[in-house]
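Input (RNA polymerase sigma-70 region 2 domain-containing protein):
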Amino acid sequence: MYFDQDVQDAIVKYNESTNAAERNKIYSEEIHYAFDKLCENIINTFKFEYFDDVYIDVKQEVLSFLVMNMHKYDHTKGSKAFSYFSVVCKNYLILHNNANYKKYKSHDDISVLDT
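Output:
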């Protein structure tokens, strides 16, 4: 299992730390792999089709979003980190997939091309 109790504890420890070097070490050694696999699995499971970027760029974008919002996770509310970040990841992808779909489906007036 790539996202176990050790990762959950590392996220709590990361959020409680104020030392940048310590946070960087915690993230790179204990959290990065789990977040990377989580993004990979959600992208592959739900088959988001309307992204202009290649797969690796989308995955890195989602991974960055998770890291930027890691401070919002509150372990005292009773939710597991895996559940919380799965929902965050999925909602981010749905939001951007729908926005890209709207751009894809929008049609401009053809008279614009006749000038």
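Helices lie at 5-16, 20-46, 55-68, 81-105.
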